[in-house]
Every structure is written in structure tokens, then in C-alpha cells.
Write a structure and sequence with these properties.
Elements (H helix, E strand, L loop, with lengths): L9 E4 L8 E11 L4 H11 L2 E2 L4 E2 L3 E15 L2 E20 L7 H37 L7 H32 L1 H17 L6
Parallel strand pairs: 1-5, 2-6
Antiparallel strand pairs: 3-4, 5-6
Helix pairs in contact: 2-3, 2-4
Amino acid sequence: MKNIALSLALLAALCAPASAANVARSYTYFSIGGKSLSDIEQQLRSRGPHVQSTGQRHPGATRMEFTTKVSYAETKGNCRVSKAAVSVKANVFLPKWRNRRTADRETALIWDTLSRDIKRHEDSHISIAKRYARKIEDTVEALPYRSSCSKLQEIAQKETARILEEHDAAQEKFDRIESHNFEDRLMRLLNYRLDQISKGRLPG
């Protein structure tokens, strides 16, 4: 559930950059077995993706790579940022329970609720990343003129690094909040799904 990998490429160019705050996401599924909830828990702990920042395995994870492209323009002895575009490449790792079809109703219900919450959690990490990608674009494009493009590029790099640190802190805060509220959140989701099933809005 953590942000696993983050890399930054700063490229100065005079050509038109890619579209703003673009996010490309892909999903990779790892298979787990077991028949009971305790089996599933053990499988998630032993087979889930390893997260470097925690040194542990997690039920889901997202690896993200930021790429920042900045275009500069020189006019009358000054340099300005003409365009900044940030793209985020996200690879989401999610569990797939191969015994779902043969599971008893209660275990299947809990699994469906849990797996949806894991996916929501990882997609939320991507939303946070996109928000900070836009912040990088807005901040860099708003930088004032400088006497040379090399000076402006140095400032752009520092601002980008600063915002990426803010991004990492925001991701960690999100994980702390989610972890603290996990049990209450899962119970609310289970009760909601049971209510929807009783009303015939979801299959039982």
C-alpha cells in the first residue's frame, strides 16, 4: 500500500512537451490461495508485494515514476519557462483470490469487500500523485524570469524536488490514516454491501 519507487527526469527542451499531468496506469495481479479468512491473511502476508520503505509485504502496492519535461524560451536576454509537463507512470499490484468461486457466502462477501478496498486505496495513491504532478507544473510555469536558462533550470529542479518531498509526505500521511481507520472502514463497507444485497441491488 505504499509508494514503492519514485524517479525524476528533468529534460530541458525547446520543442512542445507532452500533455499536462498525464497518468498512465497498469495493473498486475498476484495469485493467492486458501479457503478461510485466516488462509487469505497468511497468503497476503507471504505473497503480497514487498515495499522497500517499510521492509514488509503488503496486500497491494503502487510503483510510481514521475517524469518532468520543462521547455524554456529566451527573450531579450532573459529566460522564462514556456511549458512544464509532468507525467506519472503507475504500476498497481493487486491480489487475485483463485478460490473465490468455490468460497462460502460469508468468506466471499468479506473478500469482495476487502479486495475493492485495496484497489480503492491504491487508486487513491495515484490521485495524490496526479495532484502533486499538477502542482509541479503550476509552480514551475509560474517561476519568474531569470537572466539565463541555466539559472532558471536550477531553480526549477529545486522546486520540483521540494514538491516531490511534499508528495512523499502526503502519501505516508494517507497510509497512516487508512491504516488507523481500517477496521471501522471495512465494517462500514460490509454493512453497506449487506444492505444492498438485502435490497436486491447486489447479488448475494
